[in-house]
From TrEMBL:
Molecular functions (GO terms): acetylornithine deacetylase activity
CDD domains to which the protein is assigned, alphabetical: M20_ArgE
NCBIfam families, sorted: AcOrn-deacetyl, PRK07522.1
Signal peptide, first to last residue: none
Organism superkingdom: Bacteria
Listed name of the protein: Acetylornithine deacetylase
Taxonomic placement: Bacteria, Pseudomonadati, Pseudomonadota, Alphaproteobacteria, Hyphomicrobiales
EC number: 3.5.1.16
Length: 395
């Protein structure tokens, strides 16, 4: 077992494994503040003479961090990672999720794969970046709330775009086993609130059931997805190869024999690059206003449906002769075509006009799982890879 990090000393050199142990020890679930880990990272950078900038969340309880090592010139590399992790409650862990534990060539701990492993590699190699000397800069970007629809990154990327010379490439180090991922779906998250009118269930003709109308709207999601499935292009590289619509949470009702006055549910739409989740949102709104609400309001005018856009994550689109793709293919030797259906912060960087790919250590199959782990060999490969990139920036 590796000793957990219990303080914030940043005076000693740390290997990637030792750095990962320290990062894992911070329980940075998205429902909590990440300021402890951000302060540790800031102290680590300061101890090596690197200044960093914090971009705070609106409530001041969380922060993004970005820093530049090397000259303020164009053509540098951004190493991007997030600091938050998903909860461990309800999962059957056989190790302490907040203590990095080594077993059989693997390092177990929450966030070891997603994605503190990449963060640890970048931070552990800061002394080598400083020693350099770098002729083109390394920009480090660490965000909050990636696991909650990438809420933190937009403000950080906007601040970086205002203050930094344009980089040549952004490497978002999500776990891909160093496959160079050049595309992922765009998504929106929605909260639908249905307001009905409560009466005794024996006189449902006089009431408006929020639950039954919510069910109709949830079924619309599945009906549209079924249509997409039937029309899917089998050559589409995404899995699944069509836009998906999903309802993940639902609640409502007053009593078993009462027509419900309120119901709500969360849903998400994940669109392939040739489609827009906003277009699906427009279709959803039209179905509500033209089909569902008129029937509700004909009985009780005060009933209705409200849709709230909770979050929006832009997709990552494959670039034509992209600098980031070319760079990482050269260093990894990967020439395959890779896209993923989950979202990352890569689309946010790309939207800022920066060439971006997703490429990092670990297996996405471990993300969010009990006994999450990263293989030691993946860290070792990442250390070699980052050293090669740093070496090129010094040339």
């Amino acid at each position: 077992m590796l000793t957990p990090f219990l303080g914030r000393s940043t005076t000693c050199p740390l290997s990637p494994r030792e750095m990962l142990a320290r990062l894992v020890a911070f329980p940075t679930v998205s429902t909590s503040s990440n300021l402890d880990i951000i302060n540790f990272c800031r102290d680590w950078l300061n101890s090596h003479g690197v200044e960093s900038t914090l971009v705070m969340s609106p409530d001041g309880d969380k922060a993004n961090l970005y820093a530049t090592i090397g000259p303020q010139v164009e053509g540098g590399i951004v190493f991007s990672g997030h600091t938050d992790v998903v909860p461990v409650e309800g999962q059957n862990w056989t190790t302490d999720p907040w203590t990095l534990t080594e077993k059989n060539g693997r390092l177990y701990g929450r966030g070891s794969a997603d994605m503190k492993g990449f963060d640890a590699l970048v931070l552990a190699l800061v002394p080598e970046m400083v020693k350099g000397p770098l002729k083109r800069p390394v920009h480090i970007a660490l965000s909050y709330d990636e696991e909650i629809a990438c809420r933190g990154a937009p403000s950080m990327v906007a601040a970086m775009a205002r203050s930094l010379p344009k980089p040549a490439a952004v490497i978002v180090g999500e776990p891909t086993r160093y496959a160079v991922v050049t595309g992922h779906k765009a998504s929106v998250q929605l909260r639908t609130q249905v307001t009905g009118y409560a009466v005794h269930s024996s006189r449902i003709d006089q009431g408006v059931s929020a639950v039954m109308n919510a069910a109709r709207l949830i079924a619309w999601h599945e009906d549209v997805m079924d249509e997409n499935r039937r029309q899917a292009d089998p050559a589409n590289p995404f899995e699944p190869p069509y836009t998906t619509l999903h309802c993940g949470m639902v609640a409502g009702g007053n009593a078993a024999n009462v027509v419900s006055s309120s119901a709500w549910f969360f849903s998400d739409i994940r669109a392939i690059p040739t489609e827009s989740p906003r277009d699906y949102l427009d279709r959803y709104e039209a179905y509500i206003r033209e089909v569902v609400e008129p029937r509700m309001k004909a009985i009780r005018p005060e009933s209705g449906v409200a849709v709230e856009l909770i979050a929006e994550v832009p997709g990552l689109r494959p670039e034509t002769d992209g600098d980031a793709e070319r760079l990482m293919r050269r260093f990894t030797g990967d020439n395959g075509t890779h896209v993923v259906s989950y979202g990352t912060e890569a689309g946010i960087f790309q939207r800022a006009g920066w060439s971006t790919v997703v490429c990092g250590p670990g297996d996405i199959a471990q993300a969010h799982q009990p006994d999450e782990y990263i293989e030691i060999s993946e860290l070792e490969a990442g250390e070699r890879l980052l050293r090669r990139i740093i070496g090129e920036l010094c040339a």
